[in-house]
Fold this sequence. Notes:
CATH architecture of the domain at 1230-1441: 3-Layer(aba) Sandwich
Radius of gyration: 46 Å
Keywords: TPR repeat
Protein name: CHAT domain-containing protein
Number of strands: 14
Strand content: under 5%
Domain CHAT: 1155-1441
InterPro entries: CHAT_dom, TPR-like_helical_dom_sf, TPR_rpt
TPR repeats: 246-279
Strand order of the largest sheet: 7-6-8-12-13-14
Amino acid sequence: MPNLERSINQFDRALGICPLDHPCLATAQANLAQAKLILSQVEGVSLEAPLDLYRNALAARPVGHLDRPSNLIQLAAVHYARFREQRDEIERTRAEEFLREAMELSCTESHQHRSASFILKLQAGLRIDPVRVYGELSGEQGSASRFTEEGPWELSVQLLKRFERFGDLPDIQRAIRILEELVRTTSLWDHRYYVGLANLGVALSYRFDHFGDLNDLENAILRKREAVDLTPQGHPDKPSLLNNLATSFKARFELLGELSDLEKAISTLKEAVDLTPQDHPDKPNRLKRLATSFKTRFERLGELSDLEKAILVLGDAVDLTPHGHPDKPGCLLNFGTSFVFRFLRLGELSDLENAIRILKDAVDLTPQGHPDKPSRLHNLGTTFKSRFERLGELSDLENAIRILGDAVDLTPQGHPDKPRRLNNLAISFKARFSRLGELSDLEKAISALKDAVGLTPHGHPDKPTCLLNLGTSFVTRFFRLGELSDLENAFPILEDAVDLTPQGHPDKPRRLNNLATSFKARFEQLGELSDLERAISVLKDVVDLTPHGHPDKPTYLLNLGTSFKVRFSCLGELSDLGNAILILKDVVDLTPQGHPGKPRHLNNLATSFKARFERLGELSDLEKAISALKNAVDLTPHGHPDKPTCLLNLGTSFVTRFERLGELSDLENAIRILEDAVHLTPPGHYNKHSCLNNLATSLKARFERLGELGDLERAISVLKDAVDLIPHGHPDKPACLLNLGTSFKVRFSRLGELSDLENAIQVLKDAVDLTPQGHPEKPNRLNNLATSFVTRFSRLGELSDLENAIRILKDVVDLTPQGHPDKPSRLNNLATSFEARFERLGELRDLHHAISLYSHAASAPIGLTSARFRASQNWISCARRASHRSLLHAYSATITLLPQLAWTGLSFRRRFSELRRGADVVREAAAAALDFGFPETAVEWLEQGRSIVWGELLQLRSTHEELSSTYPNHAHRLRELSAALEDAGATRERSSSALLERVQRGIHEMSLATEHTAGTDEESFFTFAKQMWSAIQREKETWQQGADKLRTLAIERDDLLHEIRRFPGFERFLLQKEFSQLRTSAHAGPVVILNAAETRCDALIILAHVDHAIHVPLPNITLERCANLQDTLKSLARRVRSIRDGERVPLDDSGWEPFLSPLWRCVVKPVLDALAFSSPGDLSRIFWCPTGPFTFLPIHAAGFYDPAHSPLGHKVYDFVVSSYVPTLSILALSRNPITPPSDILRLLAVRQPPSDGQCPLPGVHKEVERIKAIIKNSPSARTSLLESSAGTVEEVLSLMMETDWVHFACHGVQDAKDPTASGLCLADERRLKISDIIALSRPRGGLAFLSACQTATGDKDLSDEAIHIAAGMLFAGYRGVVGTMWSISDKIAPDVARDVYEQLLGNDTRPDYREAALALHEAVGCLREDENVSFDEWIPFIHVGL
Length: 1442
């Protein structure tokens, strides 16, 4: 009592000195009121004093004040005390009103809400479930009648019951004193002892709850544990006692955070639940408590198993709670939110579906007007929002907004949960804005968030969250409208959110993250680097503050990674991009499959890979980007708001790959995908303009490739729409203007309308003016403006335009850092401008400037190969004009780039197409080397720059013995990759053929179907058409998969080669060979390279034993004369086009002598003289390696054929046995000579099949029969003959792999449009194409005899690539080939075959393909001696190879 009186005096003194306007006045009044209330209860004095003090305190705490609910509860307690004194119902009613108001103003889970609810239920005489958190009285308490002779026992129970009902503190104090005395004086063996311990533990728990004294909790646990230990197993009170002990363990865990207490609570509750019968009324409550403890441990440790257990236990609790029970909705609520927890952890959609179903039931079972109705609606609404975020179904978002709106409307003003519910409603409005782009939704979100912030008192823990969301909404509106004021408004709000969040608070990282996002946004608007630096600094703190395994860690890493990427874009520091990729990879790895954020994270990683590709040009980065984006698109459900963005990035990546590789399929894919992105982006969406802009870029690219003006017109129209959609000041405006300007320029180039060029310049000026200084795209936009000035100069001749272009392009080059992939093209543009000024003014220094710039562009290690190659060609042109000393360097750079143009990751057709850009440059380079006196360099360049595709194919089949002996693992990996790459290339060629055949067959079948169903059965026709389209699409998918695999393998192999070349001694591994290596190819006889260039023609003789090339100038023949001879040959050959069909033409050799004599006099005779071949009849082998137009001329038939020169010594075949080779490498000796598998040579004969679709060739049957007869009559059975029975492509290819030699007697076709489709006509009207042949990779060597037309004709536009069937046989593994330069006679072909095979099979040894050249020489010699055989008929037979 003295202490109480002393407290009252001190509280009274504090109140007396407190000013009336001081914020602590209400607290002082409440403290004094509480002390006087205790005094009134102890001494029984009047309650008026505490009542008046509590009323005054309440008046000082208006609605919205944090302490108002507590004041209401205290005031209600005084009115209940008066009710007990006076039994006046008005007092009880007032108390209940105060308690209900307290519940409305407090959060559902708050201490005030639980206390008010508890007191109301006490007064209503209901069972008090919330109190069970602290304990249940022992079951013996209801048996006080058994102890009537022992008043203290009964009194202690009654005091506890009264405290539970009225909450009078003296009751609990008195009960504790009595129970302590009873426990002290009762024998341990008295069964009442454990009852006293149990009730004492409950009483101590009550007092701990009131005063928070840890000693009370420790003593409560001690007493309850003793009670449990003393209660025998099977006793009905055991579960209740265990339950009470568990709640005290949990209370201590919540106070001290010791995990061991939580573990004890769980194990004790498990035992309580297990001991509680299934039908016991307390079973559901105990299950709920156990589940709550599991959830608490899950929140602490993150162990998913705890959450799983919680869900299982809550499911049992729900099942055991009868329908209609008032606890049913609350139990369902806990059950549903547990599924939400698991969804957030695992991303399993089924959890979200279960949560929605259960929470709907909870809402439906909660009556209207129930104080928990708004809370349960709120939980249901946020769950719908989560499902929308996962699936993107707009209906879920609409449901969320409707339900959350109801929750807000049902929540009274001043209720503490009102701000939180407004906040979630605002977030949903914001989500709908992001989906539909309706500005009204964003405005509603901002309005609701302003209300939430205003209703949340300063110091409230939710204040920072509301501020955070309001700030980010201002940022979002800034992104939509571009109003800087929104961004400026956001900053102080977000900074307040951070400042109000204490260190160590779990939300601190999230709030810092949003502040960093705003700094980044302001940087993107104003370009102030300090904002970006601050954003990165803050984000680093965010990442450091977030523990590993935290679900938000990937998001924070994502923002840090993208900020590094932005800084890279600004400063160009490659380390920033490397950091971005490493961090974003971690983001993807940390995000589980099925998580809704996975696609977005993949998308960001992909854009970083793409940025690195754009900087370094490594194709592997672009492939990784496309792969990640494909996954992102596949993982994003249709209708999801992120779908268009993923499609947009995937489409632009396909455009980028098209620009690099030129594959039209990439561009078609890009247009299709970008059209989808445009279609899925609603009108008014902030990203609509970006989708339109990129679609237009793709359409423009297709126009530039295919020339369809409709594509360009559509691109311009789309770009105009995109520009109109972007508000002035928006950072994307310049990019769209750039594309519109370049499109106008392209249309000018096509149509010549000067207005288009003027529009282009004006629009490009605007794009440049709107781009701030230091922006990474500034150089690109300046570059396009400058090239437009150059274009206008070319049209109008105004020198000022050219001067402007040079001035701007100088800035462009200066602003473009070294190592940037666009540096070569920009250097090239500046050089072109200097060259144009030289042509106009004649100033030699301009030409020298151009040469210097071209050389830097061509020699750059990074950049588009096409741009560097173009620069190298310009360099050559200028150097030749100026007789500049750098000419040979220019040629060297060009030749080095040729293999990169024909990269192994492209299809054969595409590689040959790319090589057409440099069709003549190698021969001109060789001529220049000879001008400077470097014949060995000329040989090296001619080998390096010719038959590039075939040379790469030979590399793939190399065994790399030197590498194997030093670095066996790398050699093994290289062989694996090379084999896989070759297989992928062959597979792609087959799938290309299959796709083409499928399309052609589809068109044919559709045509037939149209005729068949015309006007009758439209439904059947459309079904058939759909099936046909599906079949074509399947073939297309197969083709695309093959293309993807080919590129991936080529990239891997390139990377491995770069690695190998870093090893000592392997710096030149698989690069161009030096002359000393090449000359070994002449082991079987001299090799003569015939080079025809614009300025000179020459022969270069390579001998194996001579360490230099023998240079034989050919001054009496020129490139023009070679071309004229080629034209003459065409006219002569026209007469023989049909002779393979057996049709004879009149014998007329008059045109051949004047055609063949210049070849002898001007080409062959000087070579033979240089070799000192002066004795006719003493035949030597010679290998002709012609270039350019020489490849189409019959060098092997050169000579004087007039009667005056009939004696020996005037024709090439009098001195040598001629063979042709496309490259020196084809003659190279293998380190591992081929060992025949047996002594028996297996010869495959393929005759014309009846279904080849060609006219019959009667001679082929006689031809094959003669071969059979020769084999049968040979001296030794060393040869066996296999015949193709079906004559299909598949059968023939299979047999070619099994046999040693092959003989074809059928039609051959040289395809002028697509040389790789040239081939031999087989069954089912199909060809055995070059692409099929080279895929064989035969290890056997041997001879291929092609008794068919045009098997060694080649492509006139790519003469140096030897694209003909005979070359294909060499690269398939045959070492020698008998082929034909044009059509051959069906009557003569069998005679030639007979004579050749009689020579080869006529001795007692295994036939040797190396003797085929001599055998053909003699067989053709027999034809020449026949006066009935014309030049037309014997000249086309040639030998190719060894």
